[in-house]
Amino acid sequence: MGIVLIGTIGMTGIVSSKDGSSSSSASPVASEGSGAGSGEETPMDFKSIKKILKNDLLEEEAERKNEAILIKNREKQRKKVAAYNFPSTNDFWSFISELWLVKNAPNLNWDFEKADFGLEESIQGLFEDVGIFEITFKLLLISNPRPAHFSLPSNPSEYIFLLSLPFIRSMDLSKLEISLLLLEDYFRAKNGYFKEYVHEKELDQLLGRNFYERKFKIELVNKILSNYSYFIENKGFSFQQQFEVTKQMNDLLRSKPILLKAYENLLIKIDVLMKNNSEYKNYSKIYPSPEIQRKWLKNNDQNIGIFHNK
Amino acid sequence: MSRMGNNPIPLEGIITSILFFLAFTAINFSTSIYASRTIQAATAVSASSAVTSSEKTLVGIFYVNQLFSNIHQHPVTSATSLMALSCGTPLKVYETNSKVSPDWSAIIYDNNQGFIQKKLLDNTRPLCFQDRYPKFFNQINLDLTQMYYWGKLYDQYVMGKVRVK
Questions:
Q1: Which residues does B contribute to its contact with A (CB < 8 Å)?
Q2: Averaged over B108-119, what is the pLDDT?
Q3: SS3 for B6?
Q4: Is B153's CB within 8 Å of A98's CB?
Q5: Does residue A309 have a pLDDT over 80?
Q6: ipTM (interface pTM)
Q7: pLDDT tens for residues A235-269?
Q8: pLDDT greater than 80 at residue A295
Q9: Are A136 and A158 in contact (CB under 8 A)?
Q10: Distance from CA of A183 to the nearest CA of B (A)
């Protein structure tokens, strides 16, 4: 260890030591790379030459510099942690739904050239007519017969509709009937049936939070995607859920007889298709059952009591 | 060498022929150089005129506003996709005087001219999903095919908004 007498009044410093460690009276210069992370600046230790700094009125300057370095380091750390934010509820569902569409693109077959059927105006017109406002929708036509139609979860006030072109063509549905079909899907999405089924408990601990220094397993996303597929292809909605949706449709359309009549016609068409086309024989597995829905519409006041007591 | 005109007539004829031949060759050579340079210039013009003829003025710099969007060779969704761009990518948008639908923008990206739907562009850089949740997004680990399909998704959507009148 070398001791050097520095020829400055009142100061003695150990300039260098064998093991590189510094004593309390050693040089105040910060050593590089000694901070918590790489590239992080270390605040300087001016205690050893405090007296001199005070005399030279540099103490304030030293404190200011230290403060700036601390703020900079805090900001770096904040950004580092923020990179581990998990999507909020609003962002997550839209992303997952589109991820499912992308991963199932070959199965769903939505990437094909199609004409403009004028559905955008028709859907907008119907929704406005029945008093549903300030929502956005994304309609995706698929060239496969299944799923016949569906609504995927998305951001608040946004709805992703799937609609099978072969399905609507085989019944020769009008634009109004198609819009009514999607109105039903709107209610199913709004009631959250699908989201409730595909949701995983683990997701609650992550949505809108941060997983810095915690483990986030990608298997959770894969599990949710497989829940999507299972529900859309196999599980479907329950009778109770179908009843609730039918009741909502009835309540909404009751004051508009033309629309209510069109809705009944739609249910008849679907019922006939299901019974006569083997391609759609499992339609009622997902949407039970158009025939019973028609009965509910006819006898809606009497049947309410049955389900209210459940 | 004897002066021209002092040689026997046959030799004169031969010399004259040689001279004419050399002159002719020199002319052709210089002409071909000129021609090839002209062709090159013309080619260069025609390559850029595909841009120049269709662009009037630079409208501005716009940014992709969806997770992924595709640039198309022609202003139709069924046209060949040239590339998929991620959210926040800046694009130079040009005016076009050709019969391009008002729903499409002519753009140049990385020296490639293409077209992208206007609804997929914003005039300010959006706060993209990938920027807000980078670690989550990286773990999803999308491959190129999935990025391409994601861009196609926004080509295929029929999008609408129901507003209060």
A1: 67, 77-78, 129, 132-136, 139-142, 146, 149-150, 152-153, 156-165
A2: 89
A3: coil
A4: yes
A5: no
A6: 0.74
A7: 999 999 999 999 999 999 999 999 999 999 999 99
A8: yes
A9: yes
A10: 13
Residue environment code for B101-117, b if the CB has 16+ CB neighbours within 10 A, otherwise e: eeebbbbbbeeebbbbb
State whether A216 and B136 contact (CB < 8 Å): yes
Cα angle value A196/A199/A205 (rounded, 5°): 125
Where residue B157 falls among pLDDT bands split at 50, 70, 90? very high
Is the bond into A147 cis (omega within 30 degrees of 0)? yes
- Residue reference for tokens 């089924």: A197
Between CA B10 and CA B12 the distance in angstroms is: 5
Is the model more confident about B88 or about B23? B88
**Secondary structure, 3-state, B39-87:** HHHHHHHHHHHHHHCCEEEEEEEEEECCCEEEEECCCCCCCCEEEEEEC
On whether the pTM is more than 0.90, the answer is no
Using CB atoms within 10 Å of the CB of residue B92, give its burial: 0 to 12 exposed, 13 to 18 middle, 19+ buried: middle
Chain B closest-CA separation from residue A144 CA (Å): 15
User: Do B119 and B79 meet the contact criterion of CB atoms below 8 Å apart?
Assistant: no
